[in-house]
Design a protein that fits this description.
four-stranded mixed β-sheet, four-stranded antiparallel β-sheet, globular, mainly beta
Length: about 210
């Protein structure tokens, strides 16, 4: 998900009908610039080189979202599938959840198959420490900075929709990133934007970055 406003200019995006590096190409109606949906960057046209701000987002079931956000509103769109859950990914080994961390930083990714199996996956690199989670019923994936009180910590799965940190043994919600019991109760991890992508497409855009399989 991206912010579609550049300075004071609001853009309207649509599918261009083209692919680049096995990945969707968007087009804005105002300038007809072509944009990479994985990079969020203008690739050709008036806004070439401009990068859109990426926001954290969730792909989950309506029931799970409604439970977390009871006052939410809904944009009703025509369906392209009968349902959405973990079963929607018939070949999860072909997909990853990628976390583009920005210029000068790595852009790691985690296999969707591994996430479905483990529920909680640590991504520990030289410059970053992340925890990526998968919520079984809703099928949603989230990425958080694994930093508590300025220190890197490790997390492990500890039951349905829960994980425990290695430093204080507090229990955290894997969907919201909030500690619900223990010394860290009430604290929240910083959520990071990420996206589901074909593995081969991600490797084409980020050939030098780690993929956890």
């Amino acid at each position: 998900m991206y912010v579609r406003k550049i300075e004071e200019r609001e853009l309207t995006f649509q599918v261009s009908g083209m692919l680049w590096q096995r990945s969707l190409v968007m087009r804005d109606l105002e300038t007809e610039t072509l944009w990479s949906h994985l990079l969020g960057r203008g690739m050709r046209g008036e806004l070439q080189g401009i990068e859109l701000e990426m926001l954290p987002a969730s792909m989950t079931t309506w029931a799970e979202w409604k439970e977390q956000q009871p006052t939410t509103t809904l944009l009703a769109m025509s369906r392209t599938a009968d349902r959405y859950d973990a079963g929607a990914w018939k070949s999860p080994e072909k997909f990853v959840y990628g976390i583009p961390l920005g210029a000068g930083l790595p852009s790691p990714a985690v296999s969707l198959e591994k996430l479905q199996q483990a529920g909680v996956v640590m991504v520990e690199l030289k410059s970053v420490n992340l925890v990526v989670t998968h919520e079984g019923k809703g099928g949603g994936v989230k990425a958080f900075e694994a930093i508590v009180d300025g220190k890197a910590v490790s997390f492990s799965s500890s039951g349905e929709r829960a994980m425990t940190d290695s430093s204080t043994n507090s229990e955290w919600d894997i969907v919201t990133g909030k500690a619900r019991s223990g010394p860290m109760k009430g604290r929240a991890l910083r959520e990071l934007p990420g996206t589901v992508s074909f593995l081969k497409a991600w490797e084409s855009f980020y050939p030098d970055d780690q993929v956890v399989k």
